[in-house]
Amino acid sequence: MALFRKIAIALVVFVVVAGAALYIVTRGDTADLSVEAVAGTDPTLQEPDPESIPTVQIAEPVGWETGQLPEPADGLAVNRFADGLDHPRVLYALPNGDVLVTLTRSPKSDGGDDGGVFAAIRGWVESYLFSQAGAAGDSANEIVLLRDGDGDGVAEIRRTILSEGLDSPSGMSWLDGTLYVANHNAVLAFDYELGANAVTSTPRKLMDLPAGGGHWMRNMEVHPDGDRLFVAVGSVSNIGEQGMDVEEGRAAIWEYDLENDRQRMFAAGLRNPNGLDFSPWSGELWTTVNERDMLGSDLVPDYLTNVPVGAQYGWPWIYYKNNIDRRVDAPMPSFLTEYARYPEFALGPHVAALGLVFTKEGHRMGDAFASGAFVARHGSWNRKPPSGYDVVYVAFDERGNPMGKPVPVLTGFLNQDGTTKGRPTWVEWADDGSLLVSDDTAGIIWRTYAPESEPGAGVARVSGEPLRPPRELTDPRATFEEDYLRRSTPQ
């Protein structure tokens, strides 16, 4: 009996000590800097503070009460375009004014075990985080059409046009009678004519994608020339901690050639690229990227950046061009810091930047929002205090360069008690020039616009004379000698 008593006392002591240790460890890191200080073209990057256990502060979704609305910026109004949707994520406006939305969640796990007990613990933690953030449950795997036929700013027609063949769908594009859809594991093409009540064709697989993973969304955009698609694929992990073999083809943007039916990796080193759009100033591809975790509440800021062909942004070995992440075990490629790019614009730490659109001709957002980009910041789960939970505007100058700090467009999602009414996810232009915002946890599509504004003129394309090639080859030594002699000869 004495033995059992000793064992019981030892267990109690162990539980108390372990609980106290867990309490201390999981208090997490409180931010020293404001979100604004870690945003813009020259963000403050603190010294990293590696964490064994991530800082966790989840904003539990409580929904919107009847009549409640997000808080728009001065001069803007907001209303519900549609509600009652099952976790709406990506929005896509068709040329005829219909709006498509994917009802989707992460794909089901295949039940694989890559790490025994630790894998099981990680899976439990991830499941808990998803549940607390309102993202748990089965994916509806539907594409719903929303139509505002009478022009009152509310979609009175709602119709599921596609559900067969979908598996955690995200990005969509339409071109010349074809609807392109990015599942988590493949890009599919469906025959679909504008205005049709359903997609009835059998899908054609264009390309496989790395399936599932920690970052499962696959956004997609068709190039303005109509000859290729771009698909964003996020990493499995935070910093390659499961090995780089499982990251093959991930943390990248892929280009698919529609004319020649082939694909290539377009850019790499992007931990979790999401929103895609083309700059109206230059036509260049831009994206939003979610950066790494567990370096403290002030690191590393998510960002908005251009993506030239062959671009490399350094993940997992480095961030912001020359900051080496010493936690990464995989050997770093040679000269990575020399050719990695510095992101154009920081959006703040852990804000979870997702949807992206540039200013478009015919917009109804007013002069204050007439030349820049709109970004949905889904909101942090690993920062104290929380960051994001809003839609912001990034102003660009006349040459197409971002400037200043993110400007709030829609706020009021995060409550003072740490709960949240919803989480802005995607942004898209409606046919009437208003900005649509999906709110996945609340199941709502919001619509915001400037009531007193006229349709905006859009952004003027930057043009100029290209650098002309030399007409003849010259010996650089002759030029040097001629210049040297001219300078050294007494006059």
Question: What's the topology here?
Answer:
Elements: H1 2-25, E1 39-40, E2 71-72, E3 77-82, E4 88-93, E5 99-103, H2 116-132, E6 142-147, E7 157-162, E8 172-175, E9 178-182, E10 186-191, E11 204-208, E12 220-222, E13 228-233, E14 252-257, E15 262-268, E16 273-278, E17 285-289, E18 301-306, E19 318-319, E20 323-324, H3 336-339, E21 345-349, E22 353-358, E23 372-377, E24 390-395, E25 407-411, E26 424-429, E27 435-439, E28 444-449, H4 476-488
Antiparallel strand pairs: 1-21, 2-25, 3-28, 4-5, 5-6, 6-7, 8-9, 9-10, 10-11, 12-13, 13-14, 14-15, 16-17, 17-18, 18-21, 19-20, 22-23, 23-24, 24-25, 26-27, 27-28
Summarize this structure briefly.
The protein has 491 residues and is of the alpha+beta class. It is 12% helix and 29% strand.
Task: Give structural notes.
The protein is an alpha+beta fold. The chain has two domains: 1-30; 70-104 and 139-462, TolB, C-terminal domain (Neuraminidase). It contains four helices and 28 strands. The protein has a five-stranded antiparallel beta sheet with strand order 1-21-18-17-16, with no helix packed on it. It is globular and about 85 Å long.
